[in-house]
Amino acid sequence: MWFLYILLALAVLILLLAITAKKSYRVSRSINIQRPAAQVFEYLKYLKNQDQWSPWDRKDPNMKKSYQGTDGEPGFVAHWEGNKEVGTGEQELKAIIPGKRVESELRFLKPFKSTSDAWLEVSTPNPGITTVEWGFTGKNTFPFSVMSHFVSMDKMIGKDFEEGLRNLKEQLEEKG
């Protein structure tokens, strides 16, 4: 009988955690790059350029990639299959707001399925300095929503975004 009480208590706990869980997440980071915004944006609008600065490319240099469409235009899709650190998925360019913002959809297939909206946005706080913001948002669905009580998406992914932006800065500032 005590087993049923424990099982019922566990079910109630999971239900309460699910009800009170965060329903969405947002992670973003930014960095200043000493290059004109037009030059930075022109580089960012091509998904293939992410191969040069993405932290995940460095976590799996043997990642298999394939592409569909014309890079730098909405509808372009980059597909990857990598090790357990990078998983399997694809990124599709959804919108390009010239000189301002690149929007894409991230579709993770393995180790678990999820979809997130991602963006790269440029602004110019001072002449010759470009701020790049990189971020993504998505919905927490059950059972992953319960995990939001214990694991912060911002803490998990934020460090990778910071590393990627440092790589991007280095890449663009070295190009001159």
UniProtKB/TrEMBL annotation:
CDD domains: SRPBCC_1. Pfam families: Polyketide_cyc2. It comes from the Bacteria. Signal peptide: none annotated. This is Polyketide cyclase. It comes from Leeuwenhoekiella nanhaiensis.
